[in-house]
Amino acid sequence: MKLSMWIFADRLKQYDPECHISFGKFSIETVRLFSDTEQSDASTLYVGRQKDFFPDGDDFIVCKNQEDMLFLATTDLKDVMNRVLIIMELFARWEGNMMERLSSGAMAQDLFQESLHIFSHPMFLLDQDQHLLAHSSNYKIGEVNEQWDAMLIHGSSKPDYLVQINEKYPQRFSYKGVFPSRHELYPDQLFEYNFFVRDNWVGIAAIIDQFNNISQGEIDCFSLFCKYLERWFQNYIQEHHSLLLESQLQAAVTAPGSEMADLRNRLTQKGWQTADTLIFIKIDAPFLPYNINQHLYHTLRIKFPDACIFTAELSVCMLCNISRDDPSLLKSK
What we know:
22% strand; five-stranded antiparallel sheet; alpha+beta; 13 strands
């Protein structure tokens, strides 16, 4: 695992660090006492006294990685070095535990439980239906905000809220990496992260800046955490590919003649009967941006909870069961 200087700034708060961080990337893998006789290494955090780094320096401690520096309000080199080693061990142990969880087929909630000691802000994970997959279990109902309560009670935000946010901010499902999300529909600042499998959007995670005090160090930890969630999505979807109705429908449309038995079984598990009459609706939008189709896709999933909806190239497709959705009502909706 590679850590950022911002993570160390957070974990060394007891020394009132003065941060001079312009690089701030995930580059730190090892720690050493600084020596001017050794060649500098980009992946190493060097700990030393100011006078080791600067001709006119004093005995106060500095942590340095490449051009980034933390100036600490202490002269106790041994204490700082021990603390830095404890930080390295903490994250190495976290990485080991997370990888063990992933290799043993853990659920997403298990990854959240394994990470409670890393974060001081609530987090949640939604699937492609925007239903709650996992959350920070140390935050209960009434401790965050009304949307958090709705997710914990109902497993999802209220439909009206989802329709509004998907209509107003459809682009949020296309961003890569951690991105800030602040809007009038949600009571707190969010930092979010999208997940894609084979370029298909499969879910989103968020950390809530509940009191407008989240640090860059915790945002960096959230980014590391989402990398584990990415692996979880890859493992989960590969292991449960035959259960993913959307993938099966996409295969049936893009590769006619493919094996249909699994698809029929999956529709039966959904509660549809073999004698039911189905309607296939294909909505083409070849000249619209990708995120408009994504917006349409998410809106349709909310308005037609019993239909099977998926994207295929420049289209949004629906498989509807007219024994459950009257054709005239389908058309009007």
